[in-house]
User: What shape does this take?
Amino acid sequence: MVRRPSRRTFIKTTAAIGAGYYVAGGLNAQESKSAIEEIRYACFGVGGKGQSDSADAARTGKVVAFCDVDTDTLEKQGRRFKDGKAYTDYRKCLDEVGKNVDAVTISTPDHMHAPIGVKAMEMGLHCFCQKPMTKSIEEARVMSKIAAERKLVTQMGNQGTAGSALREAAAILKGGHLGKIKAVHIWTNRPVWPQGDVKPEAQPVPEGLNWDAWVGSADFVDYSPAYHPFKWRGFWAFGTGALGDMACHTLNMPFMGLDLRDPTSVTAQTSGHDQITFPKWSIIDYAFPQNENRDALVFTWYDGGKLPPLDIVPDEAFNKAADGTKQLSASGALVLGEKGAIYSGDDYCGSYKLIGVDKPAVDFKQSPGHFDEFAQGIKTNDPSLCMSNFPGYAGPLTETVLLGNLAVWSGEKVEWDAKNMKSSAPADAEFLIRRKYRDGYGLGRDQQA
Assistant: This one.
């Protein structure tokens, strides 16, 4: 039997030939072209946020396959991707078209990010994955390792990473212009879904919904509208709560500027939870040791309507209500230093205020756009073009974020050994570090439909 080369094998071969020709002087830089002139995508999850992610894929290349568990969604998106093949099972999709695509987008519920991403990357496919990159800490390590070993172009969907305001604010922090950092406070208006006391009631599966595929890697449960659509974020089995939903956005600026990786302990206060849904509110303290760029510090996260103590917030960070009272934004980031502070009143640091110090001139790399970084990286075979790549940025950020949920579940202070992925959390919290998977939905391309 003649074994046909995959699209990626062909591209690598032609790229090597082209490189040799260039070195020999056959082309100049202006005349040379990328080996991939049109990126071929498979998109997983094309409703909700997946609508814009798949639209970005179509804008920068061609969607040749798209997958969603809801046939109504597939039908609607099929009008956009008329040349694409539709699937309801990611495994069948990758098995059938994986050799003929260059990259995937993953915009599914959190618990399916790693099963799809690992299978795709083990096939040599570049990967754009929504935040948080994974549901468990080990999954973040696995996806980062595969991306690094195979030199794949990867990007997590925390779009604010590409913003000039965020990058400038981070550069100010990196430059030490606030002096010693005293504290970091991040808050969000999430959850905006039911959480804290939800009792799902089984109902018949709606027509056109592949419920088994939706449950995927999690332990099977009967269908309930309490889970799907959208409300899954509040359940331990499928989502990562308010923290997982928004911290990869709102923490992004201080994470970039202060290298907030590998905390040594995490402590949570919460409203309490029933091990089914996340609590109604959380306040989480992360302790970071000193590193070569900054002193030790504590970062505090607030959700469910909780806010930083107002007496520590500079006056310039408040909004004034019509009655003259001071109000804090519903979501925001505040970094307090000895010399001054940086405040952003939105989830993405689309703008910021520098308080107490004059604005310094700092250098930072402008972005062509978050998804455009991904597309350009694929076309030039350069993973470094993506700021939120898995090994160098998105993986460590995801690990930091998910550690907060380890403390939320445990209800006590958790010591963390990042090198060995070991914690002082109770044994029943281990699933947040290392997951178990339902048969047929684990990590790796050996999991066949």
User: Anything to note?
Assistant: The mean pLDDT is 92. Residues 390-410 form the longest helix (21 residues). The CA atoms of residues 72 and 208 lie 7 Å apart. DSSP finds twelve helices and 17 strands in the chain.
